[in-house]
Structure formats: structure tokens, C-alpha cells
Amino acid sequence: ATTEIYTLSLHDRSSDLHEETKRAVKLIMDAIEQSGKALVLDADGLKAFASFKRKLKVPFVLTPHAGEYALLTGKKLSDTFEEKAADVQKTSASLNAVVLLKGHVDIVSGEKRLKFNFTGNPGMTVGGTGDVLTGIIGAFLAQHTDPFEAAVAGAFVNGAAGDFVLHEKGAHMVASDLINWIPHVLDDPMDHLKVQGTHGKTS
């Protein structure tokens, strides 16, 4: 059985988020929380949340990159990987949310659990791949997957799909290229070993 989930990945075209955007995100999040549905927050939806951040009472996943994470927490991430992971875990605990920090190595943290994802490659910095990730995580949440596991699986699937695209056509990819590989990764995740490390993340 599946359930409804919500993914909020807004894109405000202005350099600074409009107050209307922030108010709209808050209203939407309040309504989602009242409905008891799960939520994945990305992009400008996440930036808006940073202005009124609080714990939610529903399953909640945040998927920031380093810049968005700095806005969320008000401080720059450490250059030391171990300190970075510890900081993400503290943020996860303070918000009662799963935090997936996107980067060279993705850090996925729950309050008491921590995982690192090594799939993916620099070609995936193209716009839209984060929206694909958000959709994958949302799909897992809709099947009642634990939020932490949904984020871990989403990071792996998204990155693995990107690695197959890189192997197939090189770094000049677009986000829709990843979508074509998602079914293959879900059907045979171990097949990723054929392309892992060829051009992607190794450490």
C-alpha cells in the first residue's frame, strides 16, 4: 500500500527569497503537518524553512547542498569530513529530521544513525538532479519506508543512475537522463559495480 507524501522543491527566481514565498512555504508546511503526511524539502522550499525552522511532527527529510545547509544552520560547514558529519547529525537531532547533505560524498543522518553515499559524479551538478533525488525519496516515503532508509536509498539510486549516464554519454548530462536509468538501478542495484569508480566518487 502507498500513502500520500509531499515534496516541496520551489524555485524563486529572485536573488533573495520573497517574503511571499516564505509565507507560502510556512502555510503549506503547516497544512502538511496537520494532515500527518511525510515531507521532503529541497531548494528554495528549504531556504524558506530556514527562516522559521522548527521540529515537525511528521516524517521529514531535508536535502541541502553545502550552501543551503549554511543558510539552514547559520554557519559554514567544517572542511574536515568527520566534523562535517558530526555537525549534520547534530542538526538532524535538533530538527527531528533526516538530513541528506549532498556533496562529493553524501552524508545522510538521523538522530542516531549515519550513512555515507559514494555513488554519483561531478556531472550531476547540473540543475534538476536534486529534484530527481527529491522525487525518489518521496516515492520511497509513499511506500511507508522509514525516512532515514528512504534518504539512504534515494541517495544511492540517484547517484547510481548518474554514474550510468556518465558511463553511457559522458559528463554532459541533463536531469532527465537520470530518470531513464532509475528502473535499471532499482531492478539490479549490484550492476552499479560495473561503473562505480570509473569516473565517480571513490572517497
Please give a structural write-up.
The protein is of the alpha/beta class and 203 residues long. The chain has helices at residues 19-35, 43-49, 66-73, 81-95, 129-142, 147-169, 175-187, and strands spanning 5-10, 38-42, 60-62, 98-101, 106-109, 114-117. The protein is built from seven helices and six strands, in the order E-H-E-H-E-H-H-E-E-E-H-H-H. Helix 5 (129-142) packs across helix 6.
Provide key terms for this protein.
203 residues; alpha/beta; 6-stranded mixed sheet; 48% helix; globular
Short description:
The protein has helices at residues 19-35, 43-49, 66-73, 81-95, 129-142, 147-169, 175-187; strands spanning 5-10, 38-42, 60-62, 98-101, 106-109, 114-117.
Q: What average pLDDT do the residues reach?
A: 90
**Helix fraction by DSSP (H/I, runs of at least 4):** 40-55%
> What is the first-to-last residue Cα distance?
37 Å
The tally of beta strands, per DSSP, is 6
Structural class: alpha/beta
The amount of beta strand, in percent, is 5-15%
Give the SSE layout.
Layout: E1 5-10, H1 19-35, E2 38-42, H2 43-49, E3 60-62, H3 66-73, H4 81-95, E4 98-101, E5 106-109, E6 114-117, H5 129-142, H6 147-169, H7 175-187
Parallel strand pairs: 1-2, 2-3, 3-4
Antiparallel strand pairs: 4-5, 5-6
Helix pairs in contact: 1-2, 5-6, 5-7, 6-7
